[in-house]
Amino acid sequence: MVLPFSRSISHVSPLALRVSAWLGSSLPPPWIDVPQRSGAHKVLSSRSPCASLFFGMCCIIPHLFQLHLFIYIYFVSSNLSHLFNSFFASCHKLQESLLSSASGYSNYRGILNWCVIMLVLSNARLFLENLLKYGILVDPIQVISLFLKDPYRWPAACLVIASNIFIMIALYTERRLSVGAIGENVGIIIHSINLSTVLFFPVATLLMVNSVTPVGGVLALAVYTILFLKLYSYKDVNKWCREIQHAKALSMSRSFSSASRSQVHYPGNLTHRDMYYFVFAPTLCYELNFPRSPRIRKRFLLRRLFEMLFFMQLLVGLIQQWMVPTIQNSMKPFQDMDYSRMIERLLKLAVPNHFIWLIFFYWFFHSSLNFVAELMQFGDREFYRDWWNSETITYFWQNWNIPVHKWCLRHFYKPMLKRGMSKWVGQTAVFLISAFFHEYLVSVPLKMFRLWAFMGMMAQLPLAWLVGRVFQGNYGNAAVWISLIIGQPIAVLMYVHDYYVLHYGGEEPAAPVLLS
């Protein structure tokens, strides 16, 4: 039997949701047309609320089934599409390997950590091997005894104290020039004699006095070299101030006004206070007004002091424990001209020598110079740049020692260019004067002249040309590092070998003579 309302199901609209308002009443369903409510419909309208509820549910269930079927088909089709894309889509694309330069990948932090770990492990093995072979050779008392052996055998310290004479000569010469008491030509002569004496007086003293140790001689000559560069800059800057003064026809002196009380003008800078501030300041280039830091940071100062003391002890320990035995064991291969053993000794010496050089760089250029700068409130702390990223030899020499680079650029290279000389000639002259001072600091304390340091510095010119033309990028940086790691121990072995041959007839001494 077909129910009378079944023919109207096809006319059901989405408004069927309105059945929720009808389920509790006895009215006919809202989707059945009113004119059709006759006969059986009148019978249905007289039914109980339960029958009405049943009637409404029977009308909703088919539409719920249709909705569920539609949702099911939709999700099944979506999952099939996703599975199709997962199984049949392409898994390859155009790309470079990570270690290729074309990939643009730059995060090598893990490889860097691995290199550091391997470096620590390899050097730990070498250190343990050294201890097992030689025992503990570190003896701080031996270093201290070099300076406390005999108070009357301190010619190096006396040389350093005597340097104040040359400082005063430069100061009083500039004072006389500032008031016109002497002429410019006379001032040039006095400064020339004074600067020449600064260079050659300590040389004569070290060569005539036999009690000077090589270490003391190096320290004394280093002080006089720094003093020579400072006094040369002091002479030049004051001369420039006089030229400006004459050009403007103005008399400039120290200003005592509240607006510029901290500024110093020529000739108000010609004082003992100003002179000795420049002498002790961590710079080689003189200025009337240096940049000053606002205060002294005590924690920063203590950290730098701790680093200075720690790395000084570390340097002495590494030289005594690691470098001296390696050098002494290298003498026999040099005497026998055993080239394979010589190369082996050279490579063995390269590691401790380069490690000591890096520690010395940090100790001097970072810890020591920052300590002095903080103590004197010297504001310019650019003592070095990123020389470790050097891709050319020229870039390395321009950035690893900024005080010397600034002096060469200001007082030597640019004046040569103003005189009409070419850049190549200027660069060659800079390397020439650098080679002279390198040989000056090595040959005089050792009391022998072999020119190994001079030739090593002059060899930087063709090496710089070769690296700049042949190697680029990372290859250039590797070439710079190789020259630093291999070049220095070659010079060290040459000087030590010649020193042993000259002073001990080729026999290896029982003690590290370079420190005695």
Secondary structure topology:
Layout: H1 40-45, H2 49-88, H3 109-134, H4 140-148, H5 155-178, H6 184-208, H7 214-248, H8 272-280, H9 298-328, H10 331-336, H11 339-375, H12 393-399, H13 402-418, H14 423-446, H15 452-458, H16 460-470, H17 474-504
Helix pairs in contact: 5-6, 5-7, 6-7, 7-14, 9-11, 11-17, 13-14, 14-15
Short description:
This protein is mainly alpha-helical and 516 residues long. 67% of the residues lie in helices and 0% in strands. It has helices spanning 40-45, 49-88, 109-134, 140-148, 155-178, 184-208, 214-248, 272-280, 298-328, 331-336, 339-375, 393-399, 402-418, 423-446, 452-458, 460-470, 474-504.
Tell me, rounded to a whole number, the average pLDDT. 79
Reading the helices and strands in chain order gives: HHHHHHHHHHHHHHHHH
The largest β sheet comes out as: none
The secondary structure category is mainly alpha
Envelope shape: globular
Strand content: under 5%
Q: What does this molecule look like?
A:
The chain is an all-alpha fold. The chain has a domain at 138-290. The protein contains 17 helices and no strands. The chain has helices at residues 40-45, 49-88, 109-134, 140-148, 155-178, 184-208, 214-248, 272-280, 298-328, 331-336, 339-375, 393-399, 402-418, 423-446, 452-458, 460-470, 474-504. Helix 9 (298-328) runs antiparallel to helix 11 and helix 14 (423-446) runs antiparallel to helix 15 (452-458). The N and C termini lie far apart (127 Å). Homodimer or homotetramer; both forms have similar enzymatic activities. InterPro entries: Diacylglycerol_acylTrfase1, MBOAT_fam, Oat_ACAT_DAG_ARE. Belongs to the membrane-bound acyltransferase family. Sterol o-acyltransferase subfamily. Keywords: Acyltransferase, Endoplasmic reticulum, Membrane, Transferase, Transmembrane, Transmembrane helix. The active site is at 438.
